[in-house]
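Most newcomers find our protein records easier to grasp once they have seen one. Each record describes a single protein and holds just a pair of labelled lines. A learned vocabulary of local backbone shapes supplies the integers on the structure line. Nothing more is needed to start thinking about how sequence determines fold. The record below serves as our worked example for the rest of this section.
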Amino acid sequence: MAVEMGLWRADGDKLSRIVPTALGLESQLETYIESDPTMLGETLLIIGRQVSTAHGGFIDLLALDETAAVHVIELKRDKTPRDVTAQALDYGSWVSTLSRTDIHTIFEAYRPGVALEEAFAERFNETLPEEVNSSQVFTIVAASVDAATERIVRFLNEDFGVPINVVFFRHFTDNGASYLARTWLVEHDGQTTAQAASLSRKTKTREPWNGSDWYVSFGERTGGRQWSDGRKYGFVSGGGGKWFSQTLKNLTPGARVFACIPKVGYVGVGTVTGEARRFDEAVVSMDGVGIPLKDLPLEGDYRHEDGGDDLMAEWVVPIVWTHTVPSEQGFWKAGMFANQNTAAKLRQQFTIEQVSAAFGLDS
């Protein structure tokens, strides 16, 4: 059944129906959505408008949601009902081939001088996920559609789980004020993106790892681990449970680490010189001489309850620092990479470039 929206003005006990107007609504909807994409029912980051495809078409709007799925937003305008559905899917098939680099290029053309990572963090208060464009969502924007289009969209969405929907907008005027009313063809419950992600079979949209760079979370804590020790004696560490130490063991000699104190920022870049060892067995180099770390005058305490157990012990990885700063000078910029793991592969070029520039590593 076609969707019809009604609007009434209540004057005391009397209702007066307000009749929708045509008023070239579809020609303005693209601008409205670009200025406030939340009118589509969720927070989105517009990354392109009138994006040229490889097949000669132009996508009205492209956007990212908080999972970094790409939304293809196509306005019906004067297209025939079946054409707009086919066109949205055709554009989606092209979008699905775009790499992470392609998405960055589209955004750079749309907002020159603004990094996608920064814009994403500003919009969602989250770091841009490692996977970008691993799934696509299709939204057709219209004032109305015919029964054939409704059948096609419902068939694709409800029977085959294709994340496609139609959002209807109607324009009303009353006593000099203008209003837009919105409704969806298929019930919109916020599950569209999750549904799309479950259908995705692509991993090519993850930023490539250079095989060398690692993120390390140096979790300072009162009465415990202290960055001043790691900085002075050349090490990173983690422990107090398997979760906190197991990823450190992935660091191998020659790897480059970017050390970050959570909620503070990046404080050091250096090279791994040895494998992870328990704190009570760890050795660091001082003036070319190997010295047991536990014998040095440390500001922090690296003992844990049941620390005799390998899983609970503090584990240490020796580092030769290229550049460090005190914790109070930690460097952070919106959109930079952070991770709950103690050590993780650092794929995000934005973070590498920002930290390298801040620490003067490019000169």
